[in-house]
């Protein structure tokens, strides 16, 4: 499956370890080099800002999706020419998924975690079927991955649900990880419940 567009979930905080910014650069490089269009939250700071800066510097294509109330407080990245301003956070998350060939989660706070877990839930229900790649930089997502594993072990999720996401430590391998992700079907709704 050719990868033409991805959505990247990531942090807006600038007060984080430099390793996360470096990983964002590597991710942007890999995506632009492969001609992949990027969709993101539209922010100007933190990993969102770095992602946009790098994609634009390399001549890539990036689209921001942001609720109007964030635009009003001037959170939008000024250099991004392609923007969709939407009514609320729910519409924003829905637009993130439109036309995307994969979701990529860089480290982030509660917003990133919420977006990622909603996407995993939609995939469990067969409402979203594309690859979900978790970039586990510096082991950031280890506690979440342990919690998801516990959910399986304790019977809150089925063992096949482990195939809904792929964990990647090196963002340089993002395209290969997307292409190698296990296929997923809308029929996943049939085994979404634990029986």
Automatic annotation (TrEMBL):
Q: Which GO terms describe its molecular function?
A: AMP nucleosidase activity
Look up keyword Hydrolase and say if it applies: yes
A Pfam family reported for this protein in Swiss-Prot or TrEMBL? Lysine_decarbox
Which of the seven top EC classes does this enzyme belong to? hydrolase
Q: What is its EC number?
A: 3.2.2.n1
Q: What Gene Ontology terms describe where this protein resides (cellular component)?
A: cytosol
Q: Which InterPro entries match?
A: LOG, LOG_fam
Q: Which reaction does it catalyse?
A: AMP + H2O = D-ribose 5-phosphate + adenine
Which is a GO BP term held by this UniProt record?
Answer: cytokinin biosynthetic process
What NCBIfam families does the entry give?
Answer: Rossman fold protein, TIGR00730 family
Q: What is this protein called?
A: Cytokinin riboside 5'-monophosphate phosphoribohydrolase
Q: Which gene encodes it?
A: yvdD_2
């Amino acid at each position: 499956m050719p990868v033409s567009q991805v959505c990247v979930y990531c942090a807006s905080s600038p007060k984080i370890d430099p390793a996360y910014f470096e990983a964002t650069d590597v991710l942007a490089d890999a995506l632009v080099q492969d001609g992949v269009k990027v969709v993101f939250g539209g922010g100007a700071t933190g990993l969102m800002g770095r992602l946009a800066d790098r994609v634009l510097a390399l001549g890539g294509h990036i689209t921001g999706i942001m609720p109007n109330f964030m635009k009003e407080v001037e959170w939008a990245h000024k250099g991004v020419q392609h923007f969709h301003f939407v009514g609320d956070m729910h519409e924003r998350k829905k637009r993130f998924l439109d036309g995307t060939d994969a979701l990529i989660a860089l480290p982030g706070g509660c917003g990133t975690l919420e977006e990622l877990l909603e996407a995993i839930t939609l995939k469990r229900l067969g409402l979203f079927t594309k690859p979900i790649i978790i970039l586990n930089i510096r082991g950031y997502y280890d506690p979440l991955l342990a919690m998801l594993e516990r959910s399986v072990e304790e019977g809150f999720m089925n063992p096949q649900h482990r195939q809904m996401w792929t964990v990647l430590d090196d963002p340089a391998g993002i395209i290969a990880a997307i292409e190698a992700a296990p296929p997923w079907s809308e029929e996943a709704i049939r085994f979404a419940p634990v029986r």
